[in-house]
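Model it.
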Amino acid sequence: MLGVKEWRKQTPPFEDLVLFLVKKDSRDDSAEKDVYDLCLKLLIPLERTYMILLFPTIVYCYFVDYSRKGGMQVRKIIKLMFFSITVMLLLNGCNSNSANEDLFQFKNSFVGDNSAVVNITNQLHSSEHLDEIELKTKEKPYGITLNYDMEKSQQEYKDTAIYNATYILALVQNADWITFQFGNQEYKVTKENLQSWYGTDLSELTTEEELESFIQEQLEDESKVNQFFS
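Modeled.
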């Protein structure tokens, strides 16, 4: 995610947008190309969320500007609508790629780093059912509570808890426990108990591939998983 300073450096000057919107000769065919070029300039540095908010505004102003001059031709409206749809499809594709980024870029983050915790949990199992994240940072030991809105078997709950807790506790250096709430089912995983169960210090795992392989190997033993929560 771009910081505010970096975002401002990469975003074209606001004057570019103003000059376009107040352009006098709006009926000139070159104006249509101007809006395309301007939108592309804005697309490059902005994240999907910003663009979804900004792009309709540009399109709206474009329509209003033309309507004041006598209206746009139908073919131009169709072209602009087609361009809008294409842009949104491209943004969806970019967003899908970013969702698969390397989780170990967040290694050694902290419980209080809301952005890091959210990015980690959004790429773990059952993230589509994650309803709420609570960061417990007022007093030690620090921890995180994750509330999921889903209905699955108890074994799947346990597998999800161990899988997700392993990633979080391996990446968030000052997290000591994770509580998982699946409806009326609650599972608490502490770093101490998890490392004892694995027989390994999670901080020694240095790549996502290594951690993923390590977790899957342990989850294959259902009796061992059940033993952890007994």
